[in-house]
Amino acid sequence: QLQLVESGGGLVQPGGSLRLSCAASGVSLDNYAIGWFRRAPGKEREEVSCISNTDVSTYYMDSVRGRFTISRDNANNIVYLQMNSLKPQDTAVYYCAAQERLCLGVEYAYNYWGQGTQVTVSS
Q1: N- to C-terminal Cα distance for the chain?
Q2: 9/21 Cα distance (integer angstroms)
Q3: What pLDDT, on the 0 to 100 scale, is given for residue 56?
Q4: 96-113, pLDDT tens digit by residue?
Q5: 3 burial class (0-12, 13-18, 19+ CB within 10 angstroms)?
Q6: What is the DSSP string of the chain?
Q7: CA–CA distance from 94 to each of 27, 32, 56 (Å)?
Q8: Which of 5, 76, 109, 120 has the fewest CB atoms lying closer than 10 Å?
C-alpha cells in the first residue's frame, strides 16, 4: 500500500521560507498525482497545490500562486512544496495526498493521505 509522510514544517517569521517534503513508501509515485492541502484553525481544509504524474500540469490556489512551488522527484519518491514569502495567513497543518494520474480538482479523489506537518508563520 502507498504511505505518505510529510516533513519540513516548523516556525518561521513572516517573509521567510520553508520546504515541505512528502515522502512515499510502499509503491512508486510514478502513476500518482500529488496534492498539498492545509487546514487552518477555524477554517475548512483547502487544496493548496497539485502536480500531475506527468510533471507537466500543476495547480495553485490563488492566494499562494507566485509564492509556492510544487515539484516532484519520482526517482526518490518525493514531492516538495517550496513556500516563499510566507504570511501569517499561511499558518496551518499541511497534508499531502495522492490520487491516480491527474489532478481532478475534487478532494474525494485523493485516496491516500499523510499525517500532516505544522507550519506556523509568526513574528
Answers
A1: 40
A2: 9
A3: 79
A4: 999 999 998 888 999 999
A5: middle
A6: --EEEEE--EEE-TT--EEEEEEEESS-STTEEEEEEEE-TTS--EEEEEE-TTSS-EEE-TTTBTTEEEEEEGGGTEEEEEE-S--GGG-EEEEEEEEESS--S-GGG--EE---EEEEE--
A7: 22, 19, 23
A8: 76
The C-alpha angle 73, 75, 77, rounded to 5 degrees, equals 65
Alpha carbon 26 to chain centroid distance? 19
Q: What is the pLDDT of residue 109?
A: 92
Find cell 500532516 and name the residue. 116
Do 43 and 53 touch, CB atoms closer than 8 A?
A: no
